[in-house]
Design a protein that fits this description.
The chain is 32% helix and 19% strand. It is of the alpha+beta class and 393 residues long. The chain folds into three domains: 138 residues, Adenine-n6-DNA-methyltransferase TaqI, Chain A, domain 2; 103 residues, Helix Hairpins; 148 residues, DNA methylase specificity domains (Adenine-n6-DNA-methyltransferase TaqI, Chain A, domain 2, Alpha-Beta Complex), CATH 3.90.220. Strand 9 and strand 10 form a beta hairpin. The model has no long low-confidence stretch (mean pLDDT 93). Pfam families: Methylase_S.
């Protein structure tokens, strides 16, 4: 490898880059939705397509930093905290192979050897370029073998990227439909509507349409591995999407038995606490009749829809209108919360029951497609992870 220290003195590029474990070297504005780099980037490293960069910042996913090749753009600029390099001899080292090699953990051992204990500074490894280039890599001597391995993983990465883009587009489409199929502020009908439905939607308060099911302050301490016939919905599992569209109660944690008011099919359970306003009243729904006894646990509000389609209510709680309401009535500084009194004050427009059912089923089918694509993507990522473990030493 050959280190690169060329500066962007002639402002050949004004594109600030950052490293993402998923997307590689990517535009800061696209990744963070804002610019982190300073306005004057003349002192930054100028990186050209095909060159590599080592980000020494650590995280739970990248305990020894991340190394990626610039593929998306002709060039870009990086902070001088990065180590930038290129392949010295492409006749002996294949670039695609090296990209894949740095997707493994096989290079971590060399970094561990040069990163002295206590050399982390606010998550940044204190590694000098001269030491980095002294680390050894384990490569096949046969360039053709490198090339075949590199080509295989490039095709696999392209397939993963394709599925990721399809999944992202589906999620964007869903958000678009959520905006189109619920009325905007000041309007009584949505912009997009199923055929044969007419007339304006009517305003109601949420508290008029649901009954309350008792929630319990059940923390993680009540969980057990022993079968008891009892399970619960914990607010943390709602945020983690473990409890979301609950097709089977088997996906929920087992808890110790007790005397509880039980949840039923169609009940909605929301998290009444969140780290940000976006997650306030994040909902989950029991789609099927539980086989075990299921209860609402810590930091939850449980509702039993009476005059409203449960699926319609679930998706209504995902709309921008409800999120804005949550940000207005939510309380707290480090942890944001919503009370049942404030939640039930939410007033909005509702269609007749038949139209509610149509809307709820439409979005459920959409989510089924998203879940299918997510499963395909996860399978491809697992396949890649397995091959990375088996094909490198």
């Amino acid at each position: 490898m050959e280190g690169i220290t060329r500066k962007n003195q002639d402002l050949e590029s004004t594109l600030p880059l950052t490293i993402s474990a998923q997307y590689g070297l990517i535009d800061q504005n696209e990744f963070f939705d804002k610019r982190i780099a300073s306005k004057d980037v003349s002192g930054y490293f100028l990186v050209r397509k095909g060159e590599f960069a080592y980000n020494k910042s650590t995280s739970s996913d990248t305990p020894w930093g991340a190394i990626k090749r610039l593929d998306r753009y002709k060039n870009g600029v990086l902070s001088t905290l990065y180590i930038v390099f290129k392949i010295m001899n492409e006749e002996s080292t294949n670039s695609d192979f090296l990209v894949t090699y740095y997707d493994t953990d096989r290079w971590h051992k060399g970094i561990q050897a040069i990163a002295a204990e206590g050399a982390r500074n606010h998550g940044l490894l204190n590694i000098a370029p001269v030491d980095f280039f002294e680390t050894t890599l384990s490569l096949p001597q046969d360039i053709d073998e490198q090339r075949k391995i590199g080509e295989y993983f490039k095709q696999l990465n392209d397939l993963i990227t394709l599925h990721q883009r399809k999944l992202d587009r589906l999620k964007q489409m869903k958000q678009g439909y959520l905006q189109l199929m619920f009325p905007r502020n000041g309007e009584s009908v949505p912009r997009l509507r199923f055929a044969n439905f007419e007339g304006g939607w009517k305003q109601r308060k949420l508290g008029e349409l649901v009954d309350t099911v008792k929630s319990y302050s059940l923390s993680r301490e009540v969980e057990t591995d022993e079968p008891t016939g009892y399970r619960y919905i914990h607010y943390g599992d709602i945020h983690k999407k473990i409890a979301d569209l609950i097709e089977s109660d088997k996906q929920l944690p087992i808890i110790q038995g007790g005397s509880y008011e039980l949840l039923q099919q169609g009940d909605i359970v929301v998290a009444d606490a969140s780290e940000d306003y976006v997650g306030i009243a994040e909902p989950s729904i029991l789609l099927e009749r539980p086989t075990d006894r299921v209860v609402a646990g810590l930091h939850t509000i449980a509702m039993r829809p009476q005059e409203i389609c449960p699926l319609f209510l679930y998706y209504l709680l995902h709309t921008e209108e409800f999120k804005r309401f949550g940000s207005r009535v939510g309380t707290g500084m480090k942890v944001f919360g919503i009370t049942i009194k404030n939640l039930y004050r939410f007033a909005t427009l509702f269609p007749e029951k038949e139209e509610q059912i149509k809307i709820g089923n439409f979005f459920k089918q959409f989510d089924n497609t998203i879940i299918l694509y997510q499963a395909k993507l996860d399978k491809l990522k697992s396949l890649k992870k397995a091959y990375l473990q088996k094909m490198f030493i």
